[in-house]
Structure to design on (549 residues):
């Protein structure tokens, strides 16, 4: 992503400096170029617009905390199982370093954030996967957190809302990571058999083992505009079939056309959309 | 034995195909075709058969023997229809209280335009979720290559066994080497680190049993004892109350995963 430093009055951090040298100064608003329409956007402008390009509607990646802030009622989120994180069960070369980098880059312990919150007063269990933690790949810890979330939601009679994003299984954990697909699917199944609602929101990109497990097991499957969603990654397919993929292939709108997504919902409308679905399922609002 | 040797053995030309195994282990095999939605996928074969005295539903990946058959079976990579056919037959088995035997041998689910268009991910996901709560015993044997989600979609079972010279992996060693190290030639190293041999997986408690293969490579010597073992396991699980059967299967997978806290 292209970032440039632009002019901005920055009263706080540089106050001291400003007093010492009372000229107009140069810091510190970041700019980002929209990869789709190439417009240069101020980060503040982008943040206010929920990370959606105001010119063309391109949806930028968001970290889990930003997502939770966007959809949960203010201050309602209580995190679950933050302490669950990957070890290095197979002592796979380079994995420890990758984990450490991912923790630094994302500020999270693992590639999914789980917890309980309310939306419009409706209590839900919520998970959000992290693009900045090894591309949301699923290893033992991610599988365990998702499984615990569904088990807890089943015990407490809560609906689940899940924002999926993943490059697939975390191959540094070998077959242990593949087994997380079965483990999480089992927990989703029990939640479903208890008659509880599960809504997934597929975000860019949702691929591999996550697509082939809990991402596609929702009662209702929503997706963000233009999100890439598939089992195989586009590069893998191009290598197999030795030709370029058609435009729009494996995008959210394509999946809706093919019958695998209930509705593509732009980010700005997601909170209200989710609240409406919770209300239509006669979910109970929090007391008091 | 080094892991890459196992990979080569598991992919060996002389290993029995799914159809051959069905013919060797069961009688009266009656093939049933199609997923009732789109088509019939020859890369997965299924039907009803008799295992000694026991009617079973049997489902197997089919790799072809000659090139023509290989092309027809898509080089043993199934489309979503294959997994949907498998699930249809499993639900049918449940209705008629028949135990299920799955024989896995696949490089992975097919990756291509049609497979994606028709929901490869959704088909596999559905199998995983439904198999976990099927009310009849399910047993899976990995007989050759167990490649990723395409293998797992037939392996959410009460017990998973591996033939001595089979492998089971989240990704092919070639894929792993080229993604992680941008160097497909480091396939031996990747095979080692992925822990894909039966011995490794038994130690990780991800499979239950390794089935020894005859040193001569003559599989016909294996079948009588294998038949007995499968029969014993299926009838033993068949005696469990349904709730206990499903709980055991759930807990078997629930325990999988190594993490810190
Ligand atoms: Zn734009």
């Amino acid at each position: 992503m292209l970032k440039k430093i632009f002019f901005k009055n920055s009263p706080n951090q540089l106050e001291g400096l400003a007093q010492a040298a009372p000229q107009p100064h140069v810091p510190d608003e970041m700019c980002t170029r929209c990869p789709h329409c190439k417009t240069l956007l101020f980060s503040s402008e982008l943040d206010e617009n929920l990370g959606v390009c105001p010119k063309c509607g391109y949806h930028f990646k968001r970290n889990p905390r930003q997502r939770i802030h966007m959809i949960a009622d203010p201050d309602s989120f209580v995190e679950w199982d933050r302490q669950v994180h990957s070890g290095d069960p197979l002592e796979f070369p380079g994995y420890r370093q990758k984990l450490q980098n991912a923790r630094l880059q994302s500020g999270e312990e693992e590639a999914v954030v789980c917890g309980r919150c309310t939306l419009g007063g409706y209590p839900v269990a919520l998970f959000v996967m992290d693009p900045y933690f090894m591309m949301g790949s699923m290893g033992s810890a991610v599988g365990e957190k998702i499984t615990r979330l569904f088990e807890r939601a089943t015990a407490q009679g809560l609906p689940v809302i899940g924002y999926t994003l993943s490059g697939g299984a975390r191959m540094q954990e070998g077959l242990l990571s593949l087994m997380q697909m079965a483990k999480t699917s089992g927990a989703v199944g029990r939640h479903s058999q208890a008659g509880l609602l599960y809504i997934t929101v597929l975000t860019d990109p949702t691929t591999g083992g996550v697509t082939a497990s809990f991402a596609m097991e929702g009662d209702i499957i929503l997706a963000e505009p233009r999100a890439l969603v598939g089992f195989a990654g586009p590069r893998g397919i191009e290598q197999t079939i030795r030709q370029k993929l058609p435009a729009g292939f494996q995008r959210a709108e394509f999946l809706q056309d093919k019958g695998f997504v209930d509705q593509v919902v732009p980010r700005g409308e997601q909170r209200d959309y989710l609240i409406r679905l919770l209300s239509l399922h006669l979910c109970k609002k929090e007391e008091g | 034995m080094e892991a890459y040797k196992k990979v080569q053995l598991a992919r060996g030309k002389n290993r029995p195909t799914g159809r051959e195994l069905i013919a060797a282990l069961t009688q009266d095999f009656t093939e049933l075709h199609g997923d009732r939605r789109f088509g019939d996928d020859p890369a997965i074969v299924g039907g009803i058969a008799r295992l000694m005295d026991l009617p079973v539903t049997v489902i197997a990946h089919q790799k072809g023997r000659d090139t023509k058959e290989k092309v027809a079976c898509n080089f043993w990579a199934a489309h979503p229809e294959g997994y949907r056919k498998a699930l249809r037959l499993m639900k049918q088995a449940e209705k008629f209280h028949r135990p299920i035997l799955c024989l896995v041998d696949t490089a992975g689910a097919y990756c291509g335009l049609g497979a994606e268009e028709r929901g490869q991910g959704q088909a596999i996901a559905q199998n995983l979720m439904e198999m976990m709560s099927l009310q009849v015993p399910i047993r899976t044997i990995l007989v050759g290559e167990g490649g990723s989600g395409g293998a797992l979609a037939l392996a959410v079972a009460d017990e998973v066994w591996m033939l001595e010279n089979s492998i089971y992996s989240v990704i092919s060693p070639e894929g792993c080497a080229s993604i992680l190290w941008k160097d497909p030639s480091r396939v031996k190293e990747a095979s080692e680190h992925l822990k894909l041999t039966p011995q490794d997986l038994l130690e990780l408690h991800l499979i239950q049993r390794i089935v020894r293969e005859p040193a001569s490579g003559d599989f016909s010597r294996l079948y009588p004892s294998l038949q007995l073992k499968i029969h014993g396991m299926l009838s033993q699980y068949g005696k469990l109350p349904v709730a206990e059967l499903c709980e055991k299967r759930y807990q078997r997978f629930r325990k999988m995963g190594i993490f810190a806290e």
Summary: The longest strand of chain A covers residues 198-206.
